[in-house]
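#data-curation
PF: Archiving a pair of folding outputs for the training set. Convention for this channel: one message per protein, sequence first, structure tokens after, nothing in between. First:
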Amino acid sequence: MVSIAGKKVLFIIASNNFRDEEFFEPKQVIEAKGGIITIASSSLNISGGVRGATVKPDVLLSEAKAADYDAIVFVGGGGSSEYWDNHTAHQLAKESVALGKVVSAICIAPITLANAGLLNGKKATVFPSGTERLKAKGAIYTGAGVEVDGGIITANGPQSATKFGEAIVTALQR
């Protein structure tokens, strides 16, 4: 059985309006293989998902350190746009890439990675409404459900959430 026992994964959710499936499905896949999940957000208040779920973050995004995690996951949903131009989110993503960590984003959240300069020249995917934003930052948009380019994983929406989680598990095995 494939295991990523002890691998630490930071899930970054919006302070409100994260996409439920894009949080719970990859989380379930990663935990089933032994991964340890920590949830970060811009607030420690309970965050509401667009489909009614509620999640209590463990840490503030501003307190998360790239060196403490093996992977980071930017969860999508309409609220995730709060991180598109967020310096703290950009720094965490850039530091994670520099340290060779897995950096991933789903739905419209890949725009955060693009705006941080991490998708320039990289194959990536995004929810269709974000296509032009990715291309404008130099990403090679593929339209795939899940795209892996080196240690960066992107996915296009809730229909790809489980495969997104599986891609993160695969990347963590390396």
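PF: Second:
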Amino acid sequence: MNHAPTNSPASSFHWDDPLRLDLQLTDDESTLSQATADFCLRELAPRVLEAFRHETTDPSLFRIFGAMGLLGSTLPSEYGGGGLNHVCYGLIAREVERVDSGYRSMLSVQSSLVMLPIYAFGTEAQRRHYLPRLASGDWIGCFGLTEPDHGSDPGGMRTRATGVPGGFKLHGSKTWISNAPIADVFVVWAKNDAGKIRGYILDKGMRGLSAPKIEGKVGLRTSITGEIVMNDVFVPADHELPHAEGLKAPFTCLNSARYGIAWGALGAAESCWHTARQYVLDRKQFGRPLAANQLVQKKLADMQTEIALGLQACLRLGRMKDEGVDAPEITSMLKRNACGKALDVARMARDMLGGNGISDTYGVIRHLVNLEVVNTYEGTHDIHALILGRAQTGIQAFTA
């Protein structure tokens, strides 16, 4: 058996991509990834610091995302989507969140939680009416499932859709809803007269509908968050999603978003790792770089290992999704792992930067507080553990 020489280019070690993710992508995937990275450096990176400091969200970003083809990227082009595979969607999330988790949240809510349910569970008329405008970013959407008293237990929701002549009246409230205060389209989940969970499309300006902003967030400050308050909002019958019944429908959307979150969290982790690496090479104490210390190199090795392994898992899940052989539990595994490991990386990076680690100019502390949010939303770390536990034992441990 012939072996390549250990000093050949084929066997050289790439510290920033040790398992050569780049060689496992198709030409189209590589091109898309690089184009997205260039876009993020050009359009997102210059504005993120001031947006985070002042907790401001620029709605025009949705049109910028749309012009780049990043909204609804996996949906068919006939509805304005990009027709891309799931690996491409993950690569987009990775590059956007390398800049900021809030920007990736804006994108993934629009794509996975608003456009996907309309495409998967809506009528053809609903698809034609909403999807092209959402894909272009002319309209902004939000997804209303979480309630003040029902987060990890959405089946206990109190929002009701009461049947009335010509449609429904929706009454209730949702909270911690990304994009809500600036949304034109609201995909809301409520229980009907039969106690079944159904999906409804609400439009901005409907009487009785409001979306106040939630103030004072420490994390995810570039992405606006609010409530959805419905005071007997009349919703025409043709605004119900006819093919969505029960929690399976919203969970289908959440699993799509969680997949993107796994990729995105690792993008944020990569940003923290690269920042910390450069800092310890440049910073000198006791007459030598911080990088010369064993403990510092150990932290860099830990970061490198977890990120490289996490990206391989995300790529594999993307391929499985494209092949149609992915189980939702795999998404739970990777969302849980990627967010947890990314938080570990961000915390190590903040520590390695010393006092400078709490300065927002370095970006690490911003990623850290963002990842605290990302680790919680769309299924907490512990909830995903219970999903995996149920899959292994057959025993439901969510309730007593």
